[in-house]
Amino acid sequence: GYYVPGEHARSADGWMRSTLRFDFPKPVHVAAVRIYGDNSPFGRINVKEIAVEIDGQTLIQETNAAEKIMATPGHQLRLAFSPRATTSLKLRLAAPKPFHIGEISVEGFPRLPEMFQGRLRLELEDCLSGQRMSIGEREIKLDPFQQSKIVFAVQLPPARRGNAYNLVGELTGEHGVRAESRCPVLALCPVRPLKEFVERGPKVFRVGPIGTSGFRELVPFGAGFGHPLGWDCEDANVWAFAHGMVAHADGDNSATTLFCAPARPSWIHPAPWQEWPNGVEFLPDTTRRLIRHRLRANPNFQNADRVHYNFSDYWEPSPFFSSKDMFTWNRLEEFQRFLQAQKKGALSGKTKAAVIREIKQKYSHEWERFRLVRYLMDLEGMAAAFRDAGKTFDLSGQLWTCFPPSVAGRAFKIINGVNDDSTWGMVEDSIPKTTGRIFSTMALAPALRMQALLMWGFDSRAYIIMYYHWQHPVLTESARRHTWHRAFRGVVRPDGSYTNLHAYGFGRPANIGPALGPHDFIEFHRAIERFQFLDPTGPIGAGLVLSSSVWEKPEHYKPHSIKDSPLIVRMIETFNNLHLAGLSIPFCMNATQLDVWRGNAPLILVNAEDFTVDDLKAIERKIKQGVRVAAFCRGRPGKLLADLFGITSAGEPRTGQVAGRISGKPIVTTTQTVFVPVSARQMSPAQARSVSEILKQVLAVPITFPRGTAGYGFVSSGRHFIVIEDWQDTGRHVELQYRPQEKIEHLRAVNINDHTPLP
H or E stretch including 737? Predict the structure, then answer.
């Protein structure tokens, strides 16, 4: 059949009403209509009323469709009725406001089928061995269009490690009619499955600011207008502007910058770390008043043992992003005392403009360190306020702050969670570069508990214009590849344990496309399950090691430098270049974790010239333990670094041999090491492929990806898993080479997406 464009209008009662007509060239027997609705978390745009009409007669009507769509897995509604022969079907839809439909299917047959009688047999197939185990059989009898639910009890075979199975259903009729269907079942034994953030404990009280164009809910004072604790109102705006309580754009302004009422009405992210007129920062000060005036009367707060401050859509859990300078007189006087305590001199400017100019020209490094110390004091002050109330305290947010290793431990006792956006915040519209930034985040702050993001259909910043009126499509295959690219990568934690990059799941800052059909819905939830339970417990490939010790030097440190820090950019480009060249890089770590990590996977030093003597001695111990190590070094290597990699201080081979050249300089290898005398971010694609071949051989990376593909490997539930990436839009066969370290008599593989055995 085919769809005929219907009628769409707003009726006199204000409702949106549409009539859709489906015509068929010859009579067919229709028995049901299935509608897939809006898949957003709230289902705000689902249709309210649905009626099915044939030959002028309403066969079935649903007046509560929106609620039933949201309550059904797959966000769907099936309207079934007695089979009816027809050449035309009308679907009447209505809602109080414009609505969205993802997909409509009309169920029926060209001719009325006969009653079916036969036998249903269910088997469990081991996808790796090919063996089948009988689950059970049932005699069944079905009238035309009848649906029946038959329950089987399935007991998986006992196993010490995970396995891939297929449930195979075989239906055989009286006249030899036979049909077969398969359902993939993945049995896993996760050590640390991802939990939802809200599952951190039953006694956690959550609070946080909300971005509005009016006063914040947390402001507990009355100002004489209608809604002192609520949302935006005209009186509130007038009062805020009259008292200078307005959030301004970044810059050297002296106006009071309280984040009550933004100067830009559409701006929902003003900074809560700015000052009251008396010089007190809003958020730390509000914390104690929040406890005193509002929370002590809240029974949920009284029953909690932990308070979690969530910045939600308010993405700035530190003062280093939108409020970059905060040059107030109170802060300048405090900085003067800081300089004197550090014996760094004193400010000499006679005007505020002159003082600010002097700081930028002469004391910029000290200013950044001062702000860091002030931020740590604020964090610990907020924690102390809740501790006085008998609670522990932590916070999470969208962005994070760079910390030198010497103070990172203090900060991450309180900063407990972070997101790293792979939609709105993609790096140069590149999925590998965005993953490289996530690597830098976790290598620089391995104690962070990152929330996993799961976007379905938003694989480019160009696709983030996804408001409902655009009817954004769902791109399941590209979304799955986007997800698998980072889902199972790991990090070495401060205690030496190897875990997933992510600790919690799942956030969706860009949501999911509203047009999620039945196939998309199944694949979306299958991705969630694998992401959550395929827990990486070890790597197959090399890890990137980053040293952040250079941040101990004031001239190299800026706390708000997540987007433009040379160290972070170095990690992003290193990962991107080596990954695209086909090198398996499943994990990252900080140099401070080298001695506590007990693994033996090969390591790649991202910024070898920044490694301290202690870092290099840890590398020396790893080499003696048999770990293979490669180093990218910009500039002349120091003596200890040169000795470890068999080169002279000029980069020429001493005990090693030349395996190739890059930018006219020798790449020197020994039996366990590779020294590359450039930064990996400086390599061209051709140079990256050439260097990667050397790295694969010397580091003994067991996976070789075919040209034009990439990926990584990991261990989970006692099995080896390999993610292979191919961003072409056309299907093709590729051959993957895998050389496991242990002896395996028979190597078998299965596609985890659909559990098809691979040859």
Answer: strand 737-738
Q: Which long-range contacts (CB under 8 A, 24 or more apart) does 462-470 make?
A: 462/429, 464/423, 464/424, 464/510, 466/510, 466/511, 466/513, 468/38, 468/40, 468/45, 468/100, 468/514, 469/98
Residues 31 and 155 in one domain: no
**In degrees, to the nearest 5, what angle opens at C-alpha 442 toward C-alphas 441 and 444?**
70
Which CATH number characterizes residue 55's domain?
A: 2.60.120.260
The total of other beta-carbon atoms located within 10 Å of residue 265's CB is 11
* 753 in any annotated domain: yes
Find the farthest-apart pair of alpha carbons in the chain and give their distance in angstroms, rounded.
Answer: 101
Query: What distances in angstroms separate CA 167 from CA 96, 122, 155, one per listed residue?
Result: 44, 7, 12
Judgement on whether residues 517 and 606 belong to the same structural domain of the protein: yes
Which domain covers residue 514, as residue numbers? Answer: 479-759
Task: Name the one residue in this structure whose structure tokens are 């106006």.
Answer: 255
Residue keyed to tokens 């056309």: 730
pLDDT of residue 473: 57
Quick one: tokens of 190?
A: 């996760």
Answer for the pair 526, 755: CB distance below 8 angstroms, yes or no.
no
Flag whether the pTM goes above 0.85: no
In angstroms, the first-to-last Cα distance of the chain is: 40
In a domain, 160, yes or no: yes
Per-10-residue mean pLDDT for the chain, 759 residues long?
57 85 93 83 77 95 92 86 93 87 86 87 93 93 84 87 93 82 91 75 72 38 35 43 43 33 41 60 73 77 86 61 64 91 90 90 88 88 91 80 81 81 81 92 88 75 50 70 92 95 78 68 86 93 94 72 75 96 97 95 96 96 97 94 94 93 95 96 93 96 92 94 86 86 79 89
Boundary (domain end) residue, out of 81, 109, 137: 109
Count CB atoms within 10 A of the CB of residue 726: 16
**Residues 644, 571: one domain?**
yes
Of 421, 449, 445, 446, nearest to 435 by C-alpha is 421
- Are 641 and 616 a contacting pair, CB within 8 Å? yes
Residues 650 and 550 in one domain: yes
Same domain? 596 vs 509: yes
Is residue 26 located within the same domain as residue 175? no
Q: Which of 187, 210, 235 is the last residue of a domain?
A: 187
